[in-house]
Amino acid sequence: MRSECINYGYTYESPLPVGRLVYQLADKAQVCTQRSWKRPYGVGLLVAGLDESGAHLYNNCPSGNYFEYQAFAIGSRSQAAKTYLERKFEKFTESSRDDLVKDALFAIRETLQGEKLTSSVCTIAVVGVGEAFNILDQETVQALINEFEISGEEAPINESVAEQSVGDDQRSAAAEEAAPMDI
Smallest Cα–Cα separation from 105: which of 53, 157, 144? Predict the structure, then answer.
């Protein structure tokens, strides 16, 4: 990816758009699925970048498919993080940088299944307008984790989810009252 960006910049004297970079990467991965002597890529990538049209987040699949998202998670147990991000993504455009980092940490915490969130299990990188690509050090990430754990913040619960769980409880209570043959 670095080589492609350097070559494009040298040839066209402008930065390579993120979408074109992802397209080229997906094209290389897709060729491997068509040749019997080539082994397909076995890894998906999340590619975040900033170009003249704004910030972008792409998911690159091993099959050569790529999709652009506002927020996304990949990997084992990522469905919990995706669910959290889907509930919150509409507020991301008005959120501050710190709120976005906090939402990322909440999404990661959703995937841990009872484990404690620490800076050793996650890495946070930030890219934005007027801000160079920056990987936050472990001390900073741990301080952010401690900040919302000490204050007792929990991931906000969506009201519709709460109403749905009440409805599920009422349905299960009605099912318990019914005779076995009535169900």
Answer: 144
Q: Is 133 left (phi over 0), alpha (psi -120 to 50) or beta?
A: beta
Number of helical H runs and strand E runs in the chain = 6, 5
Query: In the numeric block, which tokens belong to residue 62?
Result: 């091993």
Joined tokens for residue 131 = 């801000």
CA dist., res. 48 & res. 36, Å (int): 31
DSSP letter at 91 equals G
Rounded distance, CA 116 to CA 113, Å? 9
**Cα–Cα distance for residue pair 139/177, rounded to 1 Å:** 54
pLDDT at 153: 61
Contacts of 161 (CB under 8 A, 6+ apart): 87
pLDDT digits (tens, 9 = 90+) for 64-107: 999 999 999 998 889 999 999 999 989 998 999 889 999 999 99
